[in-house]
Each structure stands twice: as structure tokens, then as C-alpha cells.
Amino acid sequence: MTSGAGVLTDQSTFVGRTRELSAVRKLLGRSRLLTLTGAGGVGKTRLALRAAELLREVYQDGVEVVELATLETGDLLESEVATALGLRDVRRDPMGVLVDYLSGKRMLLVLDNCEHLSAVCARFVERLLQSAPRVQVLATSRQTLRVSGEQVLMVAPLPTPDCEHTVREVGRHDSVRLFVERAAGAVPGFRLNARNVAPVARLVRRLEGIPLAIELAAVRLRSMPLEHLARELEERFDVLAAKTPAALPRHQTMRATMEWSFRLCSAGERRLWARLGMFPSGADLETAEAVCSGDGIDRFDVLDHLSGLVDKSVLIRDGSRYRMPEPLRAYGCEQLPSAEARRLRRRYVEHYRDLVEEHRIDRMAPEQLDRYLLLQRELPNIRVALEMCLSEPALAPVELAAATAMWCFWLLAGSFAEGRYWLGRGLELVPESDRCRGMAIWADCLLSLRQGQAEITRRRLEEFVAFARRMGDELLIARGLRSSGVAAFLTGDAQRGLALMRESLALHEGRDDIDGVMFNLYVGAAYGSNEIPRQAAEFGERLLALCEERHALVFRAYAQLALGVAYWNLGDRPRAEALLTAATEFTGGINDRWCLTQCLEVLAWLAGARGEHERAAELLGAAHVMWQAVGTSPEWMSYHASWHQLCTEQARAALGRSAFATAFRQGSRLGQRRAVSYAVSGSRSRRKGGGSGAPVTTGAGGRRPPLTGTSPAG
């Protein structure tokens, strides 16, 4: 990453900033909010990231970085922070989830690029610091946040030599070191010597030590000699200085460097630079060809133009994607003529409308995992497309359809509040009662169920089913019945839930809708596992076979979870553990925290059933942190609540309250990666040894134990 940076010449090299890093450490030692300010391109982001890296061990609960440059609207700030922290914003108030999660943690939160959301960021930080007394915030912004207690560190450009001294003396300056390292990357073998020391010193002085400007200039050595480069920059800046009587402010120096770099690009490169400014999270080659070609850019020339912009440090290649430092992206957007911008917006919206539809993850498809990961990468760009649609009333139905098509992504990503945000805005602008609106209402109900609004949602779903029946749409009816079944389970009416699930399943089977069948089988296997464990296991086996046949890897993990719970209720612990361990490994690898949380919970029950109560307490502690993170509780889930209580009570009784609390606390501090490793390693060692642990002490034979509602830690 090089946005606004300059002090890192590549992924591993950091140049200078010793004083600033020391100042960051000292200021964070006496303040809970530190804002790094300075002009664009001066290196605020890189300084913050380097400081975060060096301070990571100081904070017991770690350091988290939230990139805000890709966020176009402040309405989603809280959800974005929650997502960066790995939280599932399952309540109506994402801020409430954040406060609950962070209230007892000692953590450094880095908020990068706050300037375009400064007022929203200020309110957010103020409330966070009041509610989470051990959390500190390191922000980067071109302006201060103006929050009480804020410390401000102005990030200055890198020091430059005041005149041409010896090579040794000039080479000590960080601006020169940066230029030489970048120049060596552009022209292998470049080094500072007696012949080039004078022009190098003049050049970094002319660029006022601004890191991004130095990087843009250094790569030009590929196409022009050093003396020519220094002379051209001086001439360009002399023209600008003549127009500005006072000395050139640094933001104008940066802008002049961007204008100079822009002018030296080919016509095609300039057009592509301007058009790529629309993509906050960058684009891959296919997207650049689809959206940015035409109007002066031949599709077959896009790759050459991308390569040219990479060579000029305008673009950064990150795997298969090309992204742009934020100051260059903003400059590019300014260069788009209005007529060209309108045409580009249409192509942009059409591309992401098609991408969302073609990469739906509510399908039993072999590329399901790839689709999920693609939508994760493209989410900032998709947000821009959705916002564009909402700004033009005629495109509101396009926004609503796209937000609805992503319903399964919102669920798996835990972005319940964000999904409802986009659905809600679209529903306000699309009042006509048609299938598109009906599907959006259904998707909104699914998300609100995960936010703990089961009773309210149950009534809305009854209205939705009535609407679907009036339309005579069997698939809509089936979806509504299935979701009504989930609502019934969550409100304590298991028999009605099973009946609704079966009715929905019959409709999907009648239409040969394999995707609908799959979702119903999951509801039956998971939610029916306590009341009808044998039937639930049959549902689960059928579901697992379907997922494996279709190579639907994401859904396969949920099938393993549901089937594992069913086998637990049937008393088949080895089968349950094998399924849950496999799901734990997979979901830990793709950061599917909703499935992973439940897997750790059930693995704790299995440890307790073997008499390994200390291990059970540790796994309960690890799961507890993740239940908090997803914003819910095992006591809210009909197929978790009673077993969770029983496991907790037995472990506490076997260990004693003090030892239980110690083990629980140790598990809660493992962190996700170590928790997954710990859970999986125990299962592997037992399989290798051929043992299955102590005898069952709870009678897991399909009868649901009584629920009295004790809390996990006691």
C-alpha cells in the first residue's frame, strides 16, 4: 500500500520518521486519541501503519486498522469498523455491538483517511472513547477531528538538504534516501555519487520532501536522465510560482507534481487514470476493460495503459488488481469531463449490476467460495454503484434488485445492518408492489431475524406470505414460509417451525428448485436437531450430499455444522466431532465467523462429555468472545441454549468456580486463529490415538435438557 505514503518504497522498506514514531509512542502514552494531520501525499498513512506495527505488542487485545478512503458515505462508518474488527452487526445498532465488544479490551484502533467523513468520525470516536475506557484511537486526516482530549501530530514532509554539500552529508537526509531507493528500483544500479548529488538535492528540495511527489518523480528516470528530470520539474514549478505570488503551499506542490506526471502520460494513460479514479478499491483487468474502454481507449490497449501507469507509480499492482493512491485517485476524478463521466457512470452501474447477479452466492455452485471472496473485494466499488443508482430515481429499481441479490452475502459476511441500509433506501424509492419489491422485503426480513427482531419479523413475514399468495408466485410463497419457520423456531414454537419448513420444502421440490431445497434442509437439520434429531440427521445427510455433489464449499461447512449438532443429539460423538472439526478448519480459513462460532461452541460440549472439563471451559471461553463479536448469544439459539447451559454447569461443578473462571478466561484470550488451532489439534490427536474420551455424563440421546438460563461465565 502506498496511498498517501512515500516513506515506504516497497512492502518491506520504511525510510526515516524516527522522530515521528517516537512522538506517536509518547503521545499515545498520555492521550487516548492521536490524529496525524498533514497534506495529501505527505505520508500519514504509512506513518500510522508503521507505528501500529511497532506498537502491536503493547496492546493486549491487538491493533486493528480500518481503511476509510473506500467508504463513500458516513452512514456506514459504524458497520465498516465492526466489519474490520470481525464483528457481525446483528443488532439494530452496530455501535452497540462495537461498544459491547470493545468495552473491556485494551486495543489500538487506527482510523485511516478520515477527512471526507470528519464530522461523522468525530462523533463516532467521541462515543467510543467514552464507552470503551481502554481503547485508544490513532487517526489520519487532513484536518483535526476536534474531539475533546485529542492530541495532534502534524506530519511534515521529509527533511531536505538546504544546499549541495558532500555526498555523505546530502545522503543522510530521508528525502534523498527515499529518492535514491525509488530511483534504484526504476534504474537498477542507481546510487548517489559526486556526479548526481547536486541535481538530486535540488530535486527533493523542489518537491519539498513530499514522499508521494518524490516517488512519482523518481520513477521518471526510466524515461529521462536525472538532469533533464530536475530541469523539467523546475520549469514546471516556476510557471506555477509565477501565478502564485506567495511561496508555493505544499498542497500546491503535490498538485503540481500530479499535473506534471499526468501531462507526461500518453493520452490513453491519462484517460484511464481519470476513469480508474471512480474505483475506490481498484479494479482487475477484466473490470477495467469492461468499464473504462471506449471513448478513446481501445479495449485491447487497456493492459498496456495499466502497465504504463504501474511503471509511473500511478497505479499499484496488488495480485490481479490495480489500485491507486488516494491523492492520485481524487486528482483523476477531477480530470473527467462531465459528459464522459455520465457515460462512465452508466457503464459502471451496468457492470456491477451484472457482477452482483452473476456472482450470487445463494446458488449451489462449484465456484461459490470464489464468488464470496470476489464480492468481499469488490464491496467498496459495489457501494459506489448502489449510491449512483439511488441518486437517479430511474435507477432505484436497479439498486433494489442488486441489494436483494446480495442477501446471502450480507448474511455470510455478517453485514446485516449494511444490507438493511441498502434495502431500506431502495424500498423507500420503489413503492410499487411487484416481485422485485417483494423479494427485497423478504431479504430485509431475513436480516432483521439475525438482528434479534424475531417477533416483529414474524408478523411482517405473515404479511409477505399473504402478498406472495395474491401474486400466485410459488417460489416467493416458499421463501416466505421457510423464513416464517425460522421465526417460529426463534420465538419458541418448534412444531410450527417444522411444519412451515416442510411446507416450504415441498413447494421447492415441486419446482425442482435445488437452491431452495438446500436452504430448507439446513433449517430442518439445524433447528430441528433437538426436537427430532433422527429426522434432522436425515435432512443433514441429504444436505451434505447435495453440497458435495455440487462442490458448494461454503454451504458444505453449514451442512457439517447442522449434521454435527444432529449427531450430537443422537449420541454419536465421534461422527459429530469429525463433522464439526472439518467445518472449524474451513470456516476459520475463510473467516466465516458465524459458522465458526457455533462449531467452537459444540466442540466445547464434546470435550465436556468426555470429561475434559478444563478444555470445555477454554473452548467455551473462546466461543464466548466470538458470540459477543457476532452480537448474539447461544441462549438465543433454540438448538444451542440448553446444551450450552448444561456444559457450563458441569464444567464449573467439576473444576470449581475459580478453576473454571481461569480456564474460561484463558480460552477467551486465545484469539480466533489460535482458538481454531487448539480446537482442531485436540480432535486430531484423539483420532490418531483411537480414543473417544470419558463416557457421556449427560445422556445425549435426543432429549432436550431443561433450560434455566444461567450465563456462561457465572
Tell me what the structure shows.
The chain is mainly α. It has 33 helices and eight strands. It has a five-stranded parallel sheet, with helices on both faces. It has a three-stranded antiparallel sheet with strand order 6-8-7. Mean pLDDT is 88; it is low at 1-12 and 691-714.
Give the SSE layout.
Layout: H1 18-30, E1 33-37, H2 44-55, E2 63-67, H3 77-84, H4 94-102, E3 107-112, H5 118-131, E4 135-140, E5 151-154, H6 167-171, H7 174-186, H8 197-206, H9 211-218, H10 226-243, H11 250-264, H12 267-276, E6 283-284, H13 285-292, H14 302-311, E7 316-318, E8 321-323, H15 326-334, H16 338-358, H17 368-390, H18 396-405, H19 407-413, H20 416-429, H21 435-450, H22 454-471, H23 474-490, H24 494-510, H25 514-527, H26 533-550, H27 553-570, H28 573-590, H29 593-609, H30 613-630, H31 641-655, H32 657-668, H33 671-689
Parallel strand pairs: 1-4, 1-5, 2-3, 3-4
Antiparallel strand pairs: 6-8, 7-8
Helix pairs in contact: 1-2, 3-4, 4-30, 7-9, 8-10, 9-11, 10-11, 12-14, 12-15, 13-16, 16-17, 17-18, 18-20, 18-21, 20-21, 21-22, 21-23, 22-23, 23-24, 23-25, 24-25, 25-26, 25-27, 26-27, 27-28, 27-29, 28-29, 28-33, 29-30, 29-31, 30-31, 30-32, 31-32
Concise synopsis of the structure shown:
The protein is mostly helical and 714 residues long. 64% of the residues lie in helices and 5% in strands. Strands 2-3-4-1-5 form a five-stranded parallel beta sheet, sandwiched between helices.
